[in-house]
Amino acid sequence: MQEAVSLLHNNQVMRGMAHIPLINQKEAPAVILLHGFTGSKLEPHRFFLNISRELEALGIASFRFDFLGSGESDGDFKDMTVLNELAEAETILDYVRSHPSIDNEKVIVLGFSMGGLVASLLAGDHPEKIEKLILLAPAGSMADEAKVMVKNSTYIKEECSFDIGGNLIGKDFIEELNTIDVWERAKRFKRDVLLIHGSNDQAVSIEDSMNYQEKCYQEQATLRIVNGADHTFNSYHWEKEVIQNICNFVK
């Protein structure tokens, strides 16, 4: 069963979708999906929706929200920062864990791209609340990637923001990234982790997933490389491979 849901965070509304399996309406496991930079609760080729539908068929609930300033949620994108999204993810996590249809001991967090960075910080900060972690092309080195984006962008003085493909990125976003010790915070999570990355990802280097495995998770992490795949797994077969790996890990 799919239904629209909303959450209030700092007096702004985050809009999302909940998928609750009809075959298991009480104390179902749940997956929280966190979208990427400039993304939404759908993601390209309805990637997140397709993941949610496959999980629901397995009797697993899922929740996918637009962060503030993205998709259909309140707010402006220029006010987005990683730590703001982390705080929003904490609100989502608490909501899901308190949901009457969900087993709060079986909540899994999945993050894609910059959402993977946020997910890794969320799990590191709240390891006792998360059963497993799934990182899809996680942007652990977002600070370095942001420097490249800014270098190739136009600065809009009256907005105190950089124009990244029509999205305004505030200076706080860039400055804050340099203060976050990603690997140190992420490694506090000691449970099972699944990393999935395309071998031909031109947006986020596959080295980011390798760094998560080597610097943070080591034996507790499994890294799956999708041969030939780009950043958003833009083909039917790549998407199916990713979803199958997710389902196997969650089960």
Automatic annotation (TrEMBL):
Keyword list, A-Z: Hydrolase
InterPro entries from the UniProt entry: AB_hydrolase_1, AB_hydrolase_Est10, AB_hydrolase_fold
Pfam family, one: Abhydrolase_1
Span of domain AB hydrolase-1: 29-149
A molecular function (GO) term: carboxylic ester hydrolase activity
PANTHER family: ESTERASE ESTD
Record protein name field: Alpha/beta superfamily hydrolase
Species of the source: Mesobacillus selenatarsenatis (strain DSM 18680 / JCM 14380 / FERM P-15431 / SF-1)
